Amino acid sequence: MTAITDRPTTLEAPVDDARDVRIDVAALADQLLGPYADLRRQAREVAGRPEFQKIEGQPVPEHRERVLHQLRELAAHHDVLRAFPSRLGGADDHGGSLSRFEELVVADPSLQIKAGVQWGLFASAILHLGTADHHDRFLPAAMSVDVPGAFAMTETGHGSDVASIGTTATYDPATQEFVIHTPFRAAWKDYLGNAAQHATAAVVFAQLVTAGPEEPAVNHGVHAFYVPVRDASGAWMPGVGGEDDGLKGGLNGVDNGRLHFDQVRVPRSSLLNRYGDVAEDGTYSSPIASPGRRFFTMLGTLVQGRVSLDGAAANASKLALSIAVTYANQRRQFAGAGSDEVVLMDYGQHQRRLLPLIAETYASTFAHEELLAAFDAVFSGRGDTPEGREDLETLAATLKPTSTWHAMNTIQAAREACGGAGYLAENRLVGLHQDMDVYVTFEGDNTVLYQLVAKRLLTEYARSLKGAGAGDVARLVAGRAAGAALHRTPLIRAVQTLSDAGDARRSVGQLRDEAAQRELLTDRVESMVADLANSLRPAQKMAPAEAAALFNAHQHELIEAARAHAERVQWEAFTRGLAQVSDPATKQVLTWVRDLFGLQLIERHLAWYLINGRLSAGRARTVTSYIDRLLARLRPHAQDLVDAFGYGPEHLRAPIASGAEQERQDEARAHYRAQRASGQAPLPEKHIR
Amino acid sequence: MTAITDRPTTLEAPVDDARDVRIDVAALADQLLGPYADLRRQAREVAGRPEFQKIEGQPVPEHRERVLHQLRELAAHHDVLRAFPSRLGGADDHGGSLSRFEELVVADPSLQIKAGVQWGLFASAILHLGTADHHDRFLPAAMSVDVPGAFAMTETGHGSDVASIGTTATYDPATQEFVIHTPFRAAWKDYLGNAAQHATAAVVFAQLVTAGPEEPAVNHGVHAFYVPVRDASGAWMPGVGGEDDGLKGGLNGVDNGRLHFDQVRVPRSSLLNRYGDVAEDGTYSSPIASPGRRFFTMLGTLVQGRVSLDGAAANASKLALSIAVTYANQRRQFAGAGSDEVVLMDYGQHQRRLLPLIAETYASTFAHEELLAAFDAVFSGRGDTPEGREDLETLAATLKPTSTWHAMNTIQAAREACGGAGYLAENRLVGLHQDMDVYVTFEGDNTVLYQLVAKRLLTEYARSLKGAGAGDVARLVAGRAAGAALHRTPLIRAVQTLSDAGDARRSVGQLRDEAAQRELLTDRVESMVADLANSLRPAQKMAPAEAAALFNAHQHELIEAARAHAERVQWEAFTRGLAQVSDPATKQVLTWVRDLFGLQLIERHLAWYLINGRLSAGRARTVTSYIDRLLARLRPHAQDLVDAFGYGPEHLRAPIASGAEQERQDEARAHYRAQRASGQAPLPEKHIR
């Protein structure tokens, strides 16, 4: 409830000589590469090789074959199996494996996703949902891509709601087999990478139905089964069928398709039985008693998909910004005050467009590093507690939507900033947008993930209320009531307005203050969650339909609360990353970048801060003016900031970012200079009147 | 300066029985088709034929040939030449021609753009920049597409800044020829439709250089020349060369390419000489003395490109929303309170995502109709005054960016709302996004156009100050000073806050009030322009470099002012369209749609209204709550609202909007119903514990 008015004032002299400081690009690049720097550098070296790169416009059949071949090459020679057990040739290195995997997006997002399907989903399901016997029997061929596999979870009728899939696996004790069956068209497996052409096996998710001796049939919920789908010649196995999903908006190097099963029988041992097993007589058993918790535990083992998409999205943003900023520092358009034309990056609007995206990409990168560390802690076993898993899943659900939507915005802004040249496939931006598009709806639709996050925030809030003593709750409630009352009166704002009027610089100083930014961002999430909890409280005493309607009426607010949380998480990660910078000049510039990130968040939600009495109108005005000052300060560092992303020409591969534009500009300027010098330049008509 | 507090209160009873009213879909569809309804219906009939439709994923060479063939078919049989002179087989019907042309986007945006290149640019340049002799010699073959033509204006080095192109046309009195020449690589013509393959001629824009007898060479600025570029066999004419632009982000049915000229000679009569001519002896003459005004007059004749993109963008938005809403009304995901799953369109977030886009599409449609009327008035000669032309150009520059960016947002939101199915090419949304992408940067980059609009707004503001008497100015200034003072004090807000607290419904009633919305939207533009004028005033006394820097520092605000203006223009057009509705139920629903449009604009800029004292915090809160109420009211009408766009299955052509999803849902529900009825349904595990 603290209004920013109460904070002590920081009176720093403004640093306006932004050109006097200079980023240590190499050191910053190292920091951004993080603890897996060496692995990432190796992965980038591979991603920069022509044989792994996307050929824009390659026909779909050739693209699919190319990517399959690339996958096998990676398996054979390029250290992509680190996540698998040492005894099978892996390195039990989960974080390191993902750090490399995320770089594949730079070569070709199709390669990243096909690798993700093969190793991150298909083989990982065998690893995490299966047991030693499955590892021995199925992992080696899945790792080497001798068996390309599909991850058959999603159905045409059910995307994000996996619990409701229609495919069944009914145990037949007479033959000790499971019968995999598709009961209707909506239960066809759909959108599965590898399914259209290459998969010879699939991990199939189905409702496990079994009856113990003398008992009725029970549905034990979704379980995974290893099912061969094609023979070596590529023909369907008996009872299995499917379709090609055909052309997609992008990622056409991945052969997405559909699968359906007509009473397909697989042995009892094909059940990946780590979290649930069926005995010969049909008796079901599980180490996790609650079917709900069991389901989420099984799905939770596959969180690495979301983790890696978060990292890949940040990398795609880096690529797009590197291309657009490099071009904007060479391209000139419209005459300036002198005889020369103005470089695009010098335009105020161009800075407004691109620099905040750079700031957000830094935030995304620092936040991803923390997600990767959390992932490695859990999957290495070092931090594998129920709380650790829960936190990891929440963090992945927080960051994956944020960074994938950011990548879409960034790539589109970059493409528009490059004008017609940005629309040519050779300059990469349109292809990158097309490929990244589906990242926002697969591996958990972003909207659905944000809802999960919001529910977790509400749970935590309820816990904090329960954990608090009676006195704390009273204070909390009183605090909120007082806050609500304050919203009604212009008291706080009145005081701020009057005090701000006196000294504009002082209020800017406060917003630049790290603690002030934190307070504003944190307060907003906490208030939104508390308000939501309050609004949803009546649901506890309502009939289900009424409660659902109440919840639905607040769905938009839930999603906005999750977004606010994500922004705070990214800001905190950025601030922690900033604390690690040792070079003073780099630290200075990066502090501006962090401030730009923080202030753009506050500007984005300025109406909320005003309505809720957290900022006065006078203070709110300074948000935008301080952003303007930051943009002017950061402009000279734009190239350094994207260069620190560490991608070379072999990664950018965009002619407009190759220096060709600079050459053309130089040639044109030399032509006019020579013409003027020769005295042969025709006079402009207006000069002769 | 009027704060909304001062308005009289409207106390209408809230209409909550939104299902009791029902849109007259057929009548609304007729209204949306506008005065050119019959022509549009015919054009939609053609656009719905398979032979004119895009084949998603067709290889580029085949796609290019297909579109060229379609173009010739259109010319021969489908009344696409209405804009041309009657004496040459046209109908001198400029508005009617565009209304048909805009529907081509529904068949294939490549067809729309190739048609735009051929008739809207190449042939139109001959028509509007040439004289009778050119019409007779060049128009028939351009109209019939016997001569496919390029519109060679843009250069690699200069996009929106046409005045700075490098290509020269130097008059040689000895041979009475112009020598067309490309002096350096950046002056290659680029991104030209038809240039890569099909064009046999081009209208080439070049700096006209000529010397009268005994006079020095003078550059008379950009003029247009008719230049043959390929012979009948497709080989380059002597001195002409070029390149294929290759694969693009979309629109790959158009063969964009580059052209360059090495001292290419064309006869003197190839100058399209309506606005500037060169006599045999090299003497230049023009009916327009000012080179600047001449340049803008010549470019102004080509405004129809922007007009038609505005209409096509609105149509693309309609298509995307028709697909997404139809699917969202059939698709179910996640269990609701009953046994059934919830239809997507019933989710609060889905309504928040799609319904405001429907409202904006209606606004865009009504505004486009007014633009088309203005265009027809000027080009028919009925309203062809300098002011009429200036207003038309400003309106086109206002609406084209607004509707093309809106189309991009809408198509992307529609694609995400359809999840994985939205990513399949067969469902049209990804292809539509890819094709429409370049609309935001071609025919005048959106950012550049908004700047033109802002400059016009500033000019009008300066005029209004000059036109006002001394007393008026004093009042104006005093009014602004008083306004500025009010911003500083919480007085207005304090009053509002206290009065609002008493009766929330009353304040909602005020925002629903048409006059209140108009006041808020209008006041914002006017204040932004006045503030800008004030900020930029010192530039008049500055050195050019300093003035340019000042202007640049306010570039973002200029663009935001233009955006605010565009929003107001759309809102006014919507409101005028609403006044034409006679059916009471339709009028009621459409009023909610207009209110949703108005309030979403106010919500988007809520911080501005709060900072500038136009809305109190209490009033601002009601904006969002009233939007929520409108969304709930409009939800039952979502399908009617998109059905009124009037596109049939032959236009949508998306399997997910074909009813197939409904069939799948019905089949699945029948399966479970039968299973439950038979008593064979396995028990859920949680039910047996």
UniProtKB/TrEMBL annotation, chains A, B:
Residue span(s) of domain Acyl-CoA oxidase/dehydrogenase middle: 150-264
Domain Acyl-CoA oxidase C-terminal, first and last residues per copy: 521-657
Membership in a protein family: Belongs to the acyl-CoA oxidase family.
Keywords, in A-Z order: FAD, Flavoprotein, Oxidoreductase
InterPro entries: ACOX_C_alpha1, Acyl-CoA_Oxase/DH_mid-dom, Acyl-CoA_Oxase/DH_mid-dom_sf, Acyl-CoA_oxidase, Acyl-CoA_oxidase_C, AcylCo_DH-like_C, AcylCoA_DH/oxidase_NM_dom_sf
Signal peptide: none
Residue span(s) of domain Acyl-CoA oxidase C-alpha1: 300-458
Region entry Disordered, spans: 659-689
Cofactor(s) this protein requires: FAD
Designated name of the protein: Acyl-CoA dehydrogenase
Organism annotation: Cellulomonas edaphi
Segments of skewed composition (Basic and acidic residues): 661-670
